[in-house]
Amino acid sequence: MAAQTKTRDRRWLALAALAVAQFMVFLDETVVNVALPSIKADLGFSEATLAWVVSVYIVVFGGLVLLGGRAADLFGRRRVFVVGTGLFGAASLLDGLAGSQSMLLGARALQGVGAALATPAALALVTALFPAGAERVKALGLWSALSGLGFAIGILLGGVITELASWRWVFLINVPVAIAALTVVPRLVEESRTPVTRRGFDLAGAVAVTVGMTTLVYAAVEAPDYGWRSLETHALVGGAMVLLGAFAIIERRSSAPLIPPGFMGRREALVPNLVQLMLGVSALSTLFLLSLYVQQVLGYTPLEAGVAYLPLAVGVAAATGLANKIVPRVGPRLLALGGLAIAAVGIARMGQAPVDGTYYIDVLPAMIVIGLGAGFSFVSITTAALASVDEEEAGLASGVLSASVQLGGAFGVAALVALATERSTDLLVSGSGPLAAQVGGLQLAFLVAAGVALAASVVAALALPSKGDSRAVPETTEVAP
């Protein structure tokens, strides 16, 4: 009995170490946003090149994450996690020491490589540590909580660190976290991988899907500058579709496919990833739009903007904690339906925020509601996608889930910012003042983001597994760490 208790405690310690390491990775997607003006001033970025401090990380992360997930299954999840976390930590150090634009952008790209390896490998290790059932559901709930907090707290920490220290510490804080993860995780987690009868690796398929995914994310990031109807955007999207189509053909003929036949055709794989993609479009674009409203309309400093995000982070934390307790009882469908609908209400409220709005009346209530809805959604979607996944496909399933949110976020931010800009331009032409035109554009973008969240709730209601579904989370006694 003592040995079993020790093993159980060891697993929860391992989960904590893995989750904190991944908190660092998800944090990095938003923590940089508030620091961008300081980075621009120190390193001499132009407005056009400054966006790549954020974009290059998203492009590389989104392009490589599917390959990272499958590599974890085939070559060892702990090994791939250690390599990815080591790269992420080393790249963060280079970011913090960067003395030129090229050094910073190169290090950000290397961070994306590290994140693409470490993220699916870590999530696959979680599924290997906890067998399907209540323990895995609880573990995935805790994981989802820290992932959601990473996105939400990024702007808070970015503002505080930039104001009180330096933009360089936005990156340097990752270094001790990476070192701690590299020290602790190998001691707590045993190696796991998919047993394979063939030693082959579908190199052609890996190249096609990686270049195709990277091109698709790049197209989303660059579309606002090129124009959504431009030849460049059409060429990039068309090229990505050709590469992804070639990947599908290569996979059918491969003796060792990167994605096993029929994997994405299964409802339990396809539907959660579709909902995850829609959540990425809505939630990540909302975070970006909120930062624009708080800083450019309300006139908050980076520190004030960071602190303003605290209620949203609290809402995410509260919702994920509650969702972790109730998802085994009600199943992922009801929780995802409710969470996405709640988030849609909060985002739609921001679509009504006026030019002369105030934080406490117009922003704070919406942030709390968005945080609650996002927290319920993170837990339910992750649970639906991974609670019953076979161990041999854990890395692949984790990689696909991570790719979905990256693609959704990249396209969501690009499309909704472009939509807001076009609406603002139209309002300026019609005689509105600059601030009124900007707010009008933001209002439209918020309403579209709310519509995407509402549509995702409909998909969840119609297609996610319910409590009575055999693929839903089994009802067992809840296990506490």
Q: Indicate the structural class.
A: mainly alpha
The share of residues in helices is over 70%
* Overall number of strands: 0
| CATH fold type of the largest domain | Growth Hormone, Chain: A
Q: Compute the separation of the termini in Å.
A: 16 Å
Note the run of SSEs as H and E: HHHHHHHHHHHHHHHHHH
- Average of per-residue pLDDT values: 82
Overall tally of structural domains = 2
Write up what this structure looks like.
By secondary structure, the chain is an all-alpha fold. It has two domains: 2-189 and 256-463, MFS general substrate transporter like domains (Growth Hormone, Chain: A), CATH 1.20.1250.20; 202-255. It has helices at residues 2-27, 36-43, 47-50, 52-75, 77-97, 101-129, 134-164, 168-172, 174-188, 203-226, 231-253, 267-297, 302-308, 310-330, 332-350, 359-386, 394-429, 434-463. Helix 4 (52-75) packs antiparallel against helix 17 and helix 12 packs parallel to helix 15 (332-350).
Provide a short characterization of the protein structure.
This protein has about 475 residues and is an all-alpha fold. The protein has 18 helices and no strands.
Question: What's the structural blueprint in terms of helices and strands?
Answer:
Elements: H1 2-27, H2 36-43, H3 47-50, H4 52-75, H5 77-97, H6 101-129, H7 134-164, H8 168-172, H9 174-188, H10 203-226, H11 231-253, H12 267-297, H13 302-308, H14 310-330, H15 332-350, H16 359-386, H17 394-429, H18 434-463
